[in-house]
Amino acid sequence: MDDELASELQCPVCLELLTWPIILPCSHILCRSPCADRLFNHGFVRCPVCRDNSFVSGGIGNLPRVISLEHIIERLQRPLPPALPPVPTEEEAEECSADDVPCQLCERESPKKAKKSCLHCNASYCTQCLRLSHPNRSPFTDHKLVEPKKNSEPKQLRCLQHDITVNIFCEDCQSLGCLLCAEGKDTSHTGHKILSLKQAAEAFKHVLEISLERLERDVKIVEDSIGIQNRTMTSLQQCVSERRAMINEQCDCLINEVETKREFFLSDLEYEEKSKCDSLTQQIEGCQQQATSLHSLIHHTKEVLRETDQCAFIQLSKSINDKVNRNVLKLTRVSTGAPPSYAVMLNHRVVDFRKERAIIKDLAYLTVPGIPHIDMSKCSRSTSSVVLVLVGAPLHELDVVDGYRVFYSTDRDRPSDSWEMVDFKTPGETRKCGRGPQSESAICLMHDNLQCGTVYYFGVIAYNATGQSEMSEVIQCHTLSASQTTLPVPQIVECQCRTYTYSIQLHSPSPLDDPPDSGIAHYLLFRETSLNKIWRSISLYGRVDHRVFGLEPDTMYDFVIMACDKNSECQVSNMVTMKTERSAY
Prior knowledge:
By secondary structure, this protein is α+β, with helices and mostly antiparallel strands. It has helices spanning 3-8, 32-39, 67-77, 127-133, 179-183, 197-252, 259-305, 310-330, 342-345, 354-361, 510-513; strands at residues 21-23, 29-31, 40-41, 44-46, 53-55, 116-118, 123-125, 145-146, 168-170, 175-177, 194-196, 380-381, 386-390, 400-401, 403-410, 420-425, 432-433, 442-447, 455-464, 467-468, 475-478, 498-499, 504-507, 521-528, 535-540, 545-548, 556-564, 570-572, 576-579. The strands form 8 sheets. Strands 12, 13, 18, 24, 25, 27, 28 and 29 form an 8-stranded antiparallel beta sheet that branches. Strands 15, 16, 19, 20 and 21 form a 5-stranded antiparallel beta sheet that branches. Residues 429-440 have low confidence and may be disordered.
């Protein structure tokens, strides 16, 4: 290699030939590793030649690779080709006349005069081509060279054992031979099935024609699969494009804080598209490679079928048939059925922000909640507890309630206007509004640890960050004595309950134990596990499995079943605490 050229191809850092050359923003070229890696620091790379300090967005891996320069270096590093053969003499360079035998190996318009003909190769060569094609070593030393012949006879295979022309084919050994091989007593073909060359050629031709039909059928399958996969990729990209437009349309309706969510959705969708497209691209490339290989094999098979020499045809057909069988075994299973519906597969990546837009649209200044309403017909009591049920919407549909304060006193403390207070808070951020799904079930305030057989007075106040409402109408409630308890206590079978991400299923046979005409109603009460949290209630009907929907994932909840009769007597079951499943998103 020229020293001046080598100096131009050296890395200015390691002073070696460039390895994986990359170009810096200043147009100088360095080795990718370790030279450029060592110069890269916190997004900046300092050129060792011009001292230019440049910022590289995305890291050193985003710098362009100089592939053409890398190929030039690889070519220069290759070993020199072997020395050319000696220049032929004038006699060897003699031009071939019309009466002479031309060399069949010369690659020139006017071939040289042939000096020898090889009976084994059935070709004539000049001195130079003979030296190149028949070096003085085995197996070429066994070739018989004669004076050049104009009309060379067709090549005839000879039996290796008896040195005569082959004229039979052993089907068991799959080899050519002569009659002496078949008729001899001590030969390896004793008892084997012997065919004439014509019979063997016809058998091989039939097998090869069947293989050709199989190859053509396989090519059709592969080409059909390529078309299906191309249409599948187009369908996938169209579905992804529609989802991307939907995501952009939804995210544009939200405020700037939602931009982070938008990037997450788009990145996830693009990853899905890339993974599916990469998989389909690999399948298409594999099928195209198989189709190319099968086309080449078909072309070669057709050429062999046109061979007129039976001996040569038998040898070539056996080799091609082996290749056909190997290609059939390696043929990858390809999909020819209907393409998958990516519109259905992408259903779990659809976004809908109508609920969020409605919340943002309804944003207003917070006001004091309206006065709570206690439904006397649904309240109940036991020996030590009272359940107050709040029903009816607040005075304004946008009222927000952070909690309820229950004031109570006994008939002895009532004249002195002495009240005790219990605070029931709404769980976390799920503050109870006057509209939406939260209003579908009644709000229950269950106050226990009371005295049995005692008259109590209750009043409820709702509050939020702006203040509290006026007290509700005061109601009177008489706890039961031990002798007045007649209701059976309901039970929850915890071992048969099941948890889900947004719901929990409880098992209780209590609603079925009481006859329909008994006048006993059952209610399921639930709340987030915490002290003084508001209970929600739903009615239970005649079944043993009861499922509560609309819960938060990965959250602990308390559950009880309350039985009530027409006399407002109630009994509460055992409390069960269960946790919803963690969400996958």
